Amino acid sequence: MRALVISGGGSKGAFAGGVAQYLMEHKKHNYDMFLGTSTGSLLVPHLAAGEIGKLYDIFTNVQQHDIFSVSPFIQRKKGDREYVSIDFINSLWQFMRRKRTFGESKALRKHIRKHVTYNEYLKIRKEKHDVVVTVANLSLNRVEYKSIQECSYEEFCNWIWISCNYIPFMSLAKVDGYEYADGGLGSVIPIREAILRGATEVDAIVLEAETLGKQKVLGKNPFSLMINLFSHLLNQVERNDIMIGKLAAKNRGVKLNLYYTPTSLTENSLIFSKRLMEKWWHEGFDYAEKRHEK
Questions:
Q1: Catalytic residue numbers?
Q2: CA atoms 283, 285, 288, 289: torsion sign
Q3: Quick check: 38 and 164 in contact, CB under 8 A?
Q4: What is the spatial distance between Cα 85 and Cα 156, in angstroms, rounded to a whole number?
Q5: How confident is residue 33, by pLDDT bands cut at 50, 70 and 90?
Q6: Residue 285 half-sphere exposure, CB side, CA atoms within 13 Å?
Q7: Which residue of 102, 141, 241, 254 pairs with 72 in a disulfide if CB–CB is 3.0 to 4.6 A?
Q8: Which residue numbers does the motif GXGXXG cover (predicted)?
């Protein structure tokens, strides 16, 4: 049984879309199982439904207002460089409302419901062995994996949304009395889970470079420094996931193919730029093509 696993990585998910397109359309990889965390959870339902063209249009056109109902960021452009700075007014407004996060991502939940249709949900359940998204149960301090085969349509869309909630910048969700957030807080790339669920070959797309190519520039204020800190911590979780995944694959005789980004695509994956995401999608496709030509 073949599985496709996609890590978290915000807007860098466009790169994963390009890699997946090459593997599915040109290498004819027919996946039985799809697993994703955070941005990976946004990609896997469309890939499982075979809607790659639709996914490209959705992903490369997403904007800040499609994600944030209250955005903690202001997107700016200086020359060819695009970056985000903190929206102190919105953040202050959240404090005044006694909210625990700097922003709210309820717009993303509507966006998911709009683009992951009920018919696609039924098609996936019928044709694929499983589609799984990763969430972090903060109340019980554990990672949970939500299968499309065990969820109603409404529940599954909600778990996809929760898997993407990168706190403290996005919404903190509550389900059955437990509080949940981005699955990357516990498992950035669930390779081991794919193997435990019966995968005999795994293609895993890691939305980070295998080695750090250049020195990172840390934030100039507490908010941007917090983003850098979270990025560092998630990177350590990801490396641990990969190490555990490699050990699980070796112990069970599973073939594991890892696809890293060739370079560090961005220092802030919360920038959603059409120009950059289109570029990254094509870079992902070209990277996978060159790798297989070798």
A1: 38, 182
A2: negative
A3: yes
A4: 32
A5: very high
A6: 16
A7: 102
A8: 8-13
